[in-house]
Amino acid sequence: MESNQTRRYRCVGDIRKMIKYGKTKSGNQRYICRVCGKTRVENYAYLAYKGDINQNIIQLTKEGLGIRSTARILKISTTTLLKRIVFIARNITKPIISKGKTYEVDELCTYIRHKKNYIWLVYALEKNSKTVVSFNVGKRTNKTLNRVLETLKLSEAKKIFTDRLKNYRYLIDEKMHSIRRFGTNHIERKNLTLRTHLNRLKRRTICFSKSLVIFTAVLKIYFWI
């Protein structure tokens, strides 16, 4: 028989067909869905197994909380939190880029592990919607810049506005490229927003990323969720 206690659990397809399925080592009752085969526990002792934990991680990450602060608030381990952040980021799909749009491209400097290890965030902003359509993290080289620019070229960008960094002149077609006053206003404002919201990007701070993987995952969550 279907237990009334399990009606709050919902599996794939909104089907509520949970039946008893033994007990855990700690004595908690387990349930299994007769349709999809997924199992549930009525009361989880470890908070990381709660259904809304990923959404809480996303919210706190976008608010700029650090790893230890987030783990302390959610009452889970930092190791589990790092794994969840990477897992969430892997399941994020890049936004679909429309053809014939106008973009702004800029770079943002930060560091990984220590202040001598400089790293650059290069990203493209769609001028009208203010949506981040592509980003890349790496050294300030043509290879790092080109990863973002190639995406825009494939979308047949109408115009690409950049600052006066000379590398752009060799990577972007002259007809498509534009350097003019106020051309990158939106993305420069986005830089300020990023530094305000994410402590790991602030200029003078003791908060910084220790891992390039986690840094990239946090940016994916911030930009595309």
Automatic annotation (TrEMBL):
Membrane-traversing stretches: 205-224
Full protein name: IS1 family transposase
Any GO BP: DNA transposition
Domain Insertion element IS1 protein InsA helix-turn-helix: 44-83
Keyword Zinc: no
Keyword annotations from UniProtKB, A to Z: Membrane, Transmembrane, Transmembrane helix
InterPro entries reported for this sequence: InsA_HTH_dom, Transposase_27, Transposase_27_IS1
GO molecular function terms noted in the UniProt entry: DNA binding; transposase activity
Entries under PANTHER family matching the protein: INSERTION ELEMENT IS1 1 PROTEIN INSB-RELATED, TRANSPOSASE
